[in-house]
Structures are given as C-alpha cells and as structure tokens.
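Give me structure tokens for this 123-residue protein.
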Amino acid sequence: MAPPYGEAEFDAVFGVQVLEYVANLDGALQALHRVLRPGGRLVILATPWSALLWHSAQPERMQRVLTAFMAHAHYPDLPAILVARLRQVGMQPLRQTPVPVLNMSYHANSFSYWLAQIIRLFV
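Here you go.
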C-alpha cells in the first residue's frame, strides 16, 4: 500500500528500526523516494542483527537464541544491502555511519534488558 502523501511532499523522512521489517523493501524505498522532494534527506537507523554479541555463561545456547532471533525480520542485516537497494530505486546515498551500542549493565533501564524481553517473546 502506497503512503497517502503527494509527490515530493517531504524535505526529510526519518525511520528507526522500520525497513528491516517491511516485506516489500523495494516498494517501500520507491514510495520514500516518491514522497521526498529533490535534495530531500532520508535517514534510516537499522541494526545488523547478525552482528549482535551477547555475553552469556552458556555461549552455545546464546548463539542458538541469537540465530533463531534472526528470523524476526525480513531483512535482519539491512545495513549490508541498503546502499545498493537505495541506488536501485534511484536514490543517491551520501553516507553510511555505524552507531555502535555497548551496554555493560542489565537492569530495567538498560537497552539489553528490553532487547532481551523482545528476544524472549520471539524465540
């Protein structure tokens, strides 16, 4: 389904952890390209889920959990393919910048805690 917006309606579009879950990635990118004005900016934040590292007292079990979790997204390693897919729909990527997250604690105010809750529900 196409978004209900006109051609070149936006100066910028920002998506956080969205496109990796869209089954029709190329269609979504074409729609984003259509609604951005010429020179507009598309900012995508996506996690390469296969790069997720998690310390565990049971590393083999943890690896099985993380491997199973990869199936939660249509494109679990979107950052690896995004530049090529953007070019395929006529966009010109300017840069791709990794944003590492290091979480050294595990409590209700930590990223790792809430990610574990999501993984638990999925796996």
